[in-house]
Design goal:
By secondary structure, the protein is of the alpha+beta class. The chain has three domains: about 80 residues, Ubiquitin-like (UB roll) (Roll); about 60 residues, DNA polymerase, domain 1 (Orthogonal Bundle); about 55 residues, no CATH class. It is built from seven helices and seven strands. The strands form two sheets. A five-stranded mixed beta sheet has the order 2-1-5-3-4, with helices on both faces. Strands 6-7 form a two-stranded antiparallel ribbon. A hairpin with a 2-residue loop joins strand 3 and strand 4. Helix 2 crosses helix 5. The longest helix has 14 residues. The protein starts with a strand and ends in a 25-residue tail after the last strand.
Amino acid sequence: MQLVLTVNGTTYEVEARPTARLLDVLRDQLGLTGTKEGCAEGECGACTVIVDGRAVNSCVMLAVQARGKEILTVEGLARDGELDVLQRKFVEYGAVQCGFCTPGMLMSAKALLMRDPTPSEQDIRIALAGNLCRCTGYTAIVAAVKAASGQESTPQMALPGVPGELAAAAVTDPATLAVACETVESEAGRPLGAPCTPVDGGPTPAGEGSTTSGARSVSEGGE
C-alpha cells in the first residue's frame, strides 16, 4: 500500500505492507538507521521516536498509523549542522557509553522538554523509565537532561579505574558529528576517554608500554 509520511519535516511517499512497522519503514526504506531495534516488543525504548509530540516505540506502531502525523527521529534533532542542546549535553556529561540506547534516550528526553521545558528530576526519571541502559547507570543521563533544560550542574567526567593523570585529562567537546570524526581521525593511536574522544595527557598507544588496547581511527574501519 502507498503511504505518505512526514519525517523530520520532509514528506515521503513509500510503498509498504499493511503490517509494516514504523521502525521498518524508517530504517529499511528511508535509511534513518539512528532509530534502533532492541527488543521488538516495546520494552527497551531503543526504537523511540516522537510522533505528534509524543514519545512512542516505533517497533510496536504500524507505519499506517503514522499517516498524517509529524514524525521526529534522532536524525532530525540537529539543525544546520549544529547538534541539539540535548545532544551537546549528552556529550558534555558523558551520558553515552556503548551508544545503542542513546537515540531512544534522546527522543524520550526531547519529548519531555517539548511539553515541559523545565522538568523536575523526578519528571525526567519518569520520562526515561521506558528506556533501558546497561552501561551508564542513568545518573549522567538524568544530569544531561537537567542541564539541557537550563538546570546546569557540574559534569562528572572523571574516569574511575584508570590512572589519575588520564582520569583528570581534558576531553574534547565536538559540536557536530563531523568535528568528532575529524578529531578521532587526526588523533589516531591516542587513548580514548569518555565520551569516546581523544584525551590529553594519556599513556602512549598500545605496544609502547600502554595498558590500553589502543583504538583504531574511523579511517581504519574500526567497528
